[in-house]
Amino acid sequence: MVTIKQIAQRVGISPSTVSIVLGGKAEQRKISVETQQKIMQAAMELGYRPNIAARSLRGGAGAEELQVAVFWAQDFRAQMMVRFLQGLRSEIDRQTRPIRLAIYPYNNDALKDMRALTSTCDCHAALICNASYADMSFLEDTRLMIPAVLYNRVCPGYTSVNVDDAHMGALAARAFVDQGCRRAMVLTSPPVFEGMEVRVQGFVLEGSAHGLEMAGTVYCDNNMAGGYQAVRRCLRKSTPEQFPDAVFCGSSMIAHGAIRAMWESGIPRDQWPKVIAIGNGSEEQDVYSTPSLSVVEMPMEQMAAECLRLLLERMEGRDTGPEIHMLPLRYIPRESCGPLTDENF
């Protein structure tokens, strides 16, 4: 393990100065920015990792706690955090050592500005969620000084917990085909990470392979209002007979808005298109909507628990290097679309 003394020797600075900088107190002690940069650069080059046990036993209230930072993007996914936190809570309850979660909301493309992620003074480790294209580039180019696990993102050098995005789209397409649908539309928001595009690609490839005609992709805001307004616009431009008989929605929220617009349109219920969404919202909303919403479930709680479990392994020195963990998916049929013929697909 690399020590503070080794970093000090590398830079030619006293160990006490290195300790102050790595402890996040450089500004208080008026240490120059140039010296701080030299120390941080040397620490990263040498592969320094903070001594978690030592930092946790400094005394005072909560000294035994492991402090885990959760970085979550402040956009349409903010409301999804509840499910993620429920998964973390279930894993924390299985641990014997107390764990404190610190939530760090961040703006898309601004993960690089989060000091808690690039220093060693705020938290012992990090769970990084919902990184954008720019955020992923930052992570790929940066060697973090605390252990980190990524949620639903794949990045060289990092352990991550994911689902098969292409299969998510394929499951929806196969369900539409099995229900006799002939023409499908994709209703989603502009992509903020690669997986959103891959889901649409998986849907189109699987559907086209089984004769499902594609009516194109309609982009909208990723909320109920976005889905509602998008379907209202589409219905104004076409008759009910011209409207696709299958709608694949990029989120539960978009789907609920779309269903509301269909209800207001006056189209007889038996003439509504089949609807399937990526199930990343509240299960209760999906179950109790009218009609209840069929989804390809995003297993968010299980993914969160697995993220924390893997992070704790790395904090305890039991990691075997970067790994990509894939969790299984399932299609949940409800009233908006029937079941798959092949449940094992």
List keywords for this structure.
345 residues; alpha/beta; 6-stranded parallel beta sheet; 6-stranded mixed beta sheet; 13 helices; 12 strands; 41% helix; elongated
What's the short story on this structure?
The chain is an alpha/beta fold and 345 residues long. It has 13 helices and 12 strands.
Fold and architecture overview:
It is built from 13 helices and twelve strands. The radius of gyration is 24 Å and the shape is elongated. Helices cover 41% and strands 18% of the residues. The protein is of the alpha/beta class and 345 residues long.
Categorize the overall geometry: elongated
Derived from helix and strand composition plus strand pairing, the structural class reads alpha/beta
Order of neighbouring strands in the sheet with most strands: 2-1-3-4-5-11
Classify the helix fraction into a percent range.
Answer: 40-55%
Number of strands: 12
List strands and helices in order, with pairings:
Layout (H helix, E strand, L loop, with lengths): L3 H8 L3 H8 L10 H14 L5 H5 L9 E8 L7 H12 L6 E8 L8 H4 L6 E5 L3 H9 L6 E4 L7 E4 L2 H14 L4 E6 L5 H16 L3 E7 L4 H14 L8 E4 L2 H14 L8 E6 L3 H6 L5 E4 L2 H16 L8 E3 L3 E3 L13
Parallel strand pairs: 1-2, 1-3, 3-4, 4-5, 5-11, 6-7, 6-8, 8-9, 9-10
Antiparallel strand pairs: 10-12
Helix pairs in contact: 1-2, 1-3, 5-13, 8-9, 10-11
